[in-house]
TrEMBL record:
A GO molecular function held by the record: NADP binding
PROSITE patterns cross-referenced by the UniProt entry: 3_HYDROXYISOBUT_DH (PS00895)
Domain spans labelled 3-hydroxyisobutyrate dehydrogenase-like NAD-binding: 156-282
Swiss-Prot/TrEMBL catalytic activity: 3-hydroxy-2-methylpropanoate + NAD(+) = 2-methyl-3-oxopropanoate + NADH + H(+)
Record organism: Amaricoccus macauensis
Catalytic machinery residues: K162
Keyword field: Branched-chain amino acid catabolism, NAD, Oxidoreductase
Pfam families according to UniProt: NAD_binding_11 (PF14833), NAD_binding_2 (PF03446)
E.C. no: 1.1.1.31
UniProt-recorded name of the protein: 3-hydroxyisobutyrate dehydrogenase
Pathway: Amino-acid degradation; L-valine degradation
Domain 6-phosphogluconate dehydrogenase NADP-binding span(s) in chain numbering: 2-153
Family annotation (NCBIfam families): HIBADH
GO biological process: L-valine catabolic process
Length: 290
């Protein structure tokens, strides 16, 4: 396929490289001037979008997605598959889809989970929103860049699924960190608690796959001085998106709101650049009054 790829950052660069390595002709653009092995360089987003069968975006925010779509929607040929893999707010995703549909393009929002490791290895999970036909056209690209894709519904449904999943993750990681911090103060061995929780009703991904205690459970960022992994500020971004979506739809998400407040305090208090599981040492050094 002839593919335009806009946003060649930590995630976009390895995704574009994998598409090129699989034999697709990829033309990329990033405002930073980033170049990627096997990917031709365009001089603008509009040039990257012109004459392609698919245009993929991997950008930091909904506002940037909107400004990029203002340039690329008029440039893209009718029928082009417009695949946005950025994590953005549901409203921006729906606006981008409406603009693309009005211009006769085929939009699919498809945010990912799996992080930079998954992007490099081509093992991402895609959560997609759009028409059946759009999803079917995107699947061969998902199969190159990822290991799994789920069609969640119409425009914006991919973003909705992503922020709901990450709200669970943020809340569950804080719960797990609180339990291990409490265990430490009670003199309970962390490895013993891991054995119990990982086989009992408290079992969840934050314990069994990503245990925040160094030296306990499978290898995780805790074993690498909490280098990300999934950076705390990205978790804060996703919890902010969940909070916005909850406010816009009048949904009660009290723990999601509290999780966002805690990640906000953690990021502001030195957590920026650390893995989101470094919530554990941050909590462990506090008493009940902070
Ligand atoms: P990043 O900041 O490394 O990359 C974003 C890129 O977009 C940058 O290279 C930037 O120069 C480029 N950019 C900004 N404005 C642009 C414009 N107007 N035109 C062209 N390029 C522009 O971020 P990332 O880690 O690659 O994340 C990208 C998206 O994926 C984000 O929405 C993020 O939330 C999401 N995401 C990231 C991870 C992760 O672990 N890094 C995991 C899942 C999802």
């Amino acid at each position: 396929m002839e593919i335009g790829f806009i946003g060649l950052g930590n995630m976009g660069a390895p995704m574009a490289r994998n598409l090129a390595a699989a034999g697709h002709r990829v033309t990329g653009f990033d405002v930073s001037g980033a170049a990627v092995e096997g990917v031709a360089k365009a001089a603008s987003a509009a040039e990257a979008a012109t004459g392609r069968e698919a245009v993929i975006t991997m950008l930091p925010s909904g506002a940037i997605l909107g400004s990029v779509y203002a340039e690329i929607v008029p440039a893209a040929a009718p029928g082009t598959l417009m695949l946005d893999c950025s994590t953005v707010d549901v409203a921006s995703a729906r606006d981008a889809a409406t603009a693309a549909t009005s211009a006769g393009l085929e939009p699919v929002d498809a945010p990912v989970s799996g992080g930079t490791g998954g992007a490099s290895a081509g093992t991402l999970t895609f959560m997609a929103g759009g028409s059946e036909a759009g999803f079917a056209r995107a699947v061969p690209l998902f199969e190159v860049m990822g290991a799994r894709s789920v069609h969640c519904g119409g425009p914006g449904a991919g973003q909705a699924a992503k922020i709901c999943n990450n709200m669970v993750l943020g809340i569950s990681m804080i719960g797990v960190c609180e339990a291990f911090a409490l265990a430490g103060k009670l003199g309970l061995d962390a490895a013993a608690l891991y054995e119990v929780i990982s086989t009992s009703s408290g079992q969840c991904w934050s314990v069994t796959t990503y245990c925040p205690v160094p030296g306990v459970g499978p290898e995780s960022p805790a074993d690498r001085d909490y280098r990300p992994g999934f950076a705390a500020e990205l978790m804060l971004k996703d919890l902010g998106l969940a909070r916005e979506a909850a406010a816009a739809s009048d949904a009660a998400t009290p723990l999601g709101t509290h999780a966002a407040e805690l990640y906000d305090a953690f990021v502001a208090g030195g957590g920026r650049g650390q893995d989101f599981s470094a919530m554990l040492p941050w909590l462990a050094k506090q008493g009940r009054d902070g």
